[in-house]
Amino acid sequence: MLSPRFLLLRSAASLATRSFCVGGVSRSGRAPDMAAVRNRLREIVGASTNWSDHQQAMAERVSLSSMLAKSQKDLPARRMKDSYLEVHLPLGSEPQLREKYLTFHNTVRFGRILEDLDSLAVLISYSHTYNQELKRSPLSIVTALVDKIDMRQHVIYPDCDIKFTGHVTWVGSTSIEAKMHMSQYRDGAYAPVLDATFVMVARDPENKRAAFVNPLSPEGPEEEELFQQGEANKSRRVDLSTASLLKVAPTDEERKIVHSLFLHTLDTKTVSFRSRILPPNSVWMEDAKLKGLEICHPQERNIFNRIFGGFLMRKAYELGWANACSYGGCRPSLVAVDDILFQKPVDIGSLLLLSSQVCYTQGKYIQVRVHSEVFDPLSRQHNTTNVFHFTFVSDRDVPNIIPMTYGESMLYLDGKRHFNQTVEN
Asked: Which range is most confident: 22-36, 126-140, 265-279?
């Protein structure tokens, strides 16, 4: 259910147009679409749709560093409604738009929705930091983390209009949390489809160091609750990072799970540490991988001359979905997107290696982890850029995934943690 504050904000019909017109876009009273969102983002930073002009524009942004605030105290506080946006995706009323979003099975490509959510989160953040006295924003606002995307329904209809709403719900000194909701018009009303929480970070014009953002001033108990939830989300992320299996040993309960999995794969005839047998209705984790390669062309760049984060999410999702489909033997539905961490930007011209792994299963559920890295063919170096976590559900029970090595056991436990977090929420 949408929060009371979102219902209140959404009911204020003039807010969406006014918030968007802060950026200088007007569509004769009609709610903006995604093309208008991306055009406005280019205007905010002075980017160009022309590749050669775009490079020059990015070089000119260096001079904007002098406009950055020296501290957060120098910036005026903003309200949640100052960043509120409503954006439409007219799949029903504009059939020519559908092909971009359409799958072979006449459903909506969720990877495209991820791209739209990423663009909207950036514009929401710029709306929060907007200074009407400046022609261009000195801030480079980029996606740091997709904290959570929860699906409210599995089916997105390709011939019904979609509406996105969202606003800033929490602010740190240099980071911003934006919550968004997506609904679809069907049977005479908009019905909720998903809820999303993104964490954005502000950087200097060259995207080299952190920059301060306007503080947030909640109004009323509903907004205060949203803000406190943002604080709790931050604490939760810190706790999860501290307890990462890449840093500390598994818990006692998790160690018992790993040992139990090992015992169930022992060959009873030899009873040897080296001799392992796959249990019935199971798949070795090594056999549940799917990999892909992307050459990062200028067409997929964002407003800061790097590869668009939404593009990376789309490619990772589609690879993860294909892996879950192959593993389960049927078309799976997305349940949640969890904890997508953007560790490093991806430069244009990079070779992007994507590797998906089914890492945990339970009943009809399939947990998939997608790891992305850039590969430099000259130096032969690999650098991790993103890690993605997707929870899918099949229409039937799926085989159990079984780790064989210690490293695979850690992937299994990490997948179980993400799955449990999805189920608990």
From this structure: 126-140
Q: What is the DSSP string of 145-188?
A: EEEEEEES-S---TTS-EEEEEEEEEE-SSEEEEEEEEEEEETT
What is the chain's length? 425
How many angstroms from the chain centroid is the CA of residue 274?
41
Q: What is the rounded distance in angstroms from the CA atom of residue 361 to the CA atom of residue 279?
A: 14
3-class SS of residue 91: coil
DSSP notation for 265-310: TB-TTT--SS-B-PPTTEEEGGGSEEEEEEE--GGGB-TTSBB-HH
CA–CA dist 399, 59 (Å, integer):
53
Provide the pLDDT confidence category of residue 30 given band limits of 50, 70 and 90: low
Q: Are 2 and 164 in contact (CB under 8 A)?
A: no
Q: CA-to-CA distance for 424 and 82, rounded, in angstroms?
A: 32
More confident residue, 375 or 51: 375
Compute the distance between CA of residue 167 and CA of residue 423 in angstroms, rounded to an integer. Answer: 26
Asked if the model's pLDDT at residue 201 lies above 90, the reply is yes
pLDDT in tens, 41-74: 988 887 766 766 666 767 778 888 889 999 999 9
Identify the CA nearest to 370 among candidates 286, 290, 287: 290
Distance from C-alpha of 306 to C-alpha of 47, rounded to nearest angstrom: 12
CA 366 – CA 348 distance, rounded (Å): 33
